[in-house]
Design brief:
Length: 314
């Protein structure tokens, strides 16, 4: 249905002038006939009614016109405020996206700390293993694995230059968890078993680099804990709750000190001797940038809970 065509203001003014002129003409003729005594009966009553009613109607129309002008002024101000709010929201979204890129860069650089530290430990082991060629060969292979991890992080950082603003895309979450479990197994963590329990396919809206950085950080924390306790099991469990995918990352290492729960996601706070205290704060920031959440599950002894929005097709 096509919108109704609005008349220009001049038409309304002309119609008002014609109506006023008609009333003035009727009033002059009526007054002349009244003076001559020729206006009697219904015409006389009509003249009296119109003569008293028109000023009242004119006053009402003037009041209505003033009200409409004020209403239009308020509507115009509201539209202008809405326009400013929309522009501000667009600027804030851009700032948020720009900050997310920097957070991801910080996460990638932070994650380089883990393979570099592991390389240092492997070099110490290599130096201490005397002339055992088989053990040295194994240590060299494990060192190559850590180098590959470091190079993968650097490749992620390099790819950010041409990728523009990070945007979420449908990702099969169970494949990511399975790939991470296989990657850890390939690193030669002989004392640690990493399991991915994914009973069904779950598609999420997420940025691949963000998602990988979060999960690698959680896995890295669990691996660090289990190395200190001479091995154990890390379990990544995938489920859904409403329109959210939920990943629990649990390990059977030493429980977290209850005193650190409140500051666990605070920057520059860490219990690691070589840590920077940035991993968990960055991981939470990345999760929230994707409209998700990262938290410590209070119902388990040591379980991190990652929530992400399901893909539209899920």
């Amino acid at each position: 249905m096509s919108p109704r065509k609005e008349w220009p203001l001049a038409i309304y003014v002309l119609l008002g002038v014609l109506a006023g002129a008609t009333y003035v003409g009727f009033d002059l003729v009526s007054e002349a006939r009244l003076r001559a005594g020729t206006l009697t009966g219904p015409l006389s009553s009509a003249h009296s009614l119109i003569d008293h009613l028109i000023p009242v109607l004119a006053g009402g129309l003037i009041g209505l016109s003033i009200h409409q002008r004020r209403l239009r002024a308020r509507l115009s101000a509201a539209e202008e405020a809405a326009s400013r709010a929309e522009a501000l929201r667009a600027r804030l979204l851009k700032v948020e996206r720009d900050q997310a890129v920097w957070v991801l860069a910080a996460a990638v650089l932070h994650e380089l700390n883990n393979p570099l530290h592991a390389l240092g430990l492997l070099l110490d082991e290599y130096q201490a293993c005397a002339d055992d060629s088989a053990q040295r060969a194994e240590l060299v292979e494990r060192a190559h694995g850590q180098v590959r991890r470091a190079l993968a992080h650097l490749e992620t950082l390099r790819s950010m230059q041409g990728s523009g603003e990070p945007e979420a895309q449908p990702i099969a979450l169970e494949r990511v968890l399975g790939s991470l479990a296989a990657d850890v197994s390939a690193l030669g963590e002989t004392l640690v078993l990493v399991r991915a329990e994914c009973p069904a396919q779950v598609m999420v809206n997420a940025d691949p680099s963000y998602l990988r950085a979060i999960l690698e950080n959680l896995l890295g924390n669990s691996l660090h804990s289990l190395r200190g306790s001479q091995g154990g099991v890390v379990t990544m469990t995938l489920s859904t709750e409403g329109r959210r995918a939920v990943v629990h990352v649990v390990d059977d290492g030493p429980a977290l000190d209850p005193r650190v729960h409140a500051t666990l996601f605070d920057p520059l706070r860490t219990t690691k001797s070589h840590g920077l205290g940035l991993g968990l704060p960055i991981a939470r920031a990345l999760a929230r940038a994707m409209h998700g959440e990262l938290s410590l599950d209070p119902t388990a002894a040591k379980s991190f809970r990652l929530e992400l929005p399901l893909a539209d097709s899920q």
